[in-house]
Amino acid sequence: MSSSVYNHRSLAPNPGMPRGAQEGLLRLNEAFDTIKSEYDLLLNEVGVVKSQRDEAESKMAAQVNELNIIRQTLYDLEGNHHKIRTQYEDELGRLRLELQQYKNMVTNKEDRASTNAPSAAPGPREPRYRGRRSLSLAPLSLLSMSKHFKITDPLLPLVVVPVHPVQALVPAQDEV
């Protein structure tokens, strides 16, 4: 990529010039050629550097764009997480309240049953089925089960299933 500004005609030595002047002209021509070749090399190098700069800028712009997309996705995920967590905590609080109400109801029923029922009365009998041993079940409250199962982490899922009081396994009277 030569520039026309620096094109020069070579200075030809005159036969009538002294020998020292002719050598000076030759050295001057060599210096001009060296300067011209250096200028061309620098011009090429500047072109390469500009193309590398443009490529680096385009890559950086693409990465900045990608980071902005990731940032927006993260903000969206945080918003969804907060919304779902709030719903979960509300549901968990509602279920805990329901569980506490159920425990209170069971405790009240047991208290009324123990004050109204005679203590030595036998429990209800289960029917016999095809020669198998039938079992009668004694009352067992949810509160007595809660002694065995403790909730240590309030964020763990809690499933509450309404259960009628169950009876402990006791052999039926007719099979003893």
State the end-to-end distance. Answer: 114 Å
Residues in helix, %: 55-70%
Number of helices: 2
The tally of beta strands, per DSSP, is 2
Secondary-structure-derived class: mainly alpha
Global Rg: 49 Å
Query: Uncertain regions: pLDDT < 50 for 5+ in a row?
Result: 128-149
Which strand-content bin applies to the residues?
5-15%
Overall 3D shape: rod-shaped
Order of strands across the main sheet: 1-2
Task: Report the average pLDDT across residues.
Answer: 74
Order of helices and strands: HEHE
* Main β sheet profile: 2 strands, antiparallel
Write out key terms for the chains shown:
176 residues, mainly alpha, two-stranded antiparallel sheet, 2 strands
